[in-house]
């Protein structure tokens, strides 16, 4: 890119470091290109106004991956790396108004709940019933809740692991000799803690990771609570992340079988 002076290229380098540290880009080249795009505005100056513009373009790129506050703190760190103590202070230019990035609006309407606290579920729209149909575990026709097969609390850690394993995952998915594939499969299983890795996305990008992580199933409230009390979230994310695998768990199967015989009660379909 032309027209970048020395100071600005230092700032771009500092943003690039933030992108790499946050695992937002898979290579230095990508991080550099994105940093340039984020950092180049009409003027380049050590000012609050300039940093505000940087935060806005940063959010344009990564609204799905980071909250506004995370973006602000990354830009703040880059500014301090670049200008030291003289860096302009990036106050909260957006006040504390909640922002509706794609991810947070998604979280608002279908967030997974901590299904262990039934009364909290009732008052919190986090645990809203989302419709009626057949529970995928107990097979009763009943009011249903949405369960994230990979619980949201594990997403940051899962994202990191998937990015770190990206090249292995991609070579595992492409055609290759069997010995190498088996070797990669074993290593991946170890590093990702996956009971089964064949359903990983074949190419790792923000979009493919998001699709992979946002898979849901529809279960009744009783089955939902049971699943969460039987397995910790990391176990759900890495071992019991499909309905089939949930049903392979003896305890879950036993509960579903029992629930199947119970009346739906207040969750009955009218
Ligand atoms: Zn059920
Ligand atoms: Zn759940």
Key traits:
binds zinc ion, 3 strands, 55% helix, 3 domains, single chain, 270 residues
> How can the largest sheet be summarized?
3 strands, antiparallel
Strand content: 5-15%
Portion of residues within helices: 40-55%
Q: What small molecules accompany the polymer chains?
A: zinc ion
Shape: elongated
- The overall average pLDDT, rounded, is 79
Q: Please mark out the parts with pLDDT under 50 across 5 or more consecutive residues, or reply none.
A: 92-127
The chain-level structural class is: mainly alpha
Cα separation of the termini: 64 Å
Q: Could you tell me the number of beta strands?
A: 3
Q: Spatial order of the strands in the main sheet?
A: 1-2-3
**Gyration radius, to the nearest Å?**
23 Å
Structure report:
Strand 1 (131-134) and strand 2 (141-148) form a beta hairpin. This protein is mostly helical and 270 residues long. Strands 1-2-3 form a 3-stranded antiparallel beta sheet, with helices on one face. It has helices spanning 6-21, 28-39, 48-62, 68-83, 102-110, 118-123, 155-164, 166-173, 178-192, 206-213, 221-230, 233-238, 243-248, 250-260, and strands spanning 131-134, 141-148, 216-219. The relative contact order is 0.11. The protein has 3 domains: 6-86; 104-150 and 215-267, no CATH class; 155-209, no CATH class. The radius of gyration is 23 Å and the shape is elongated. Mean pLDDT is 79; it is low at 92-127.
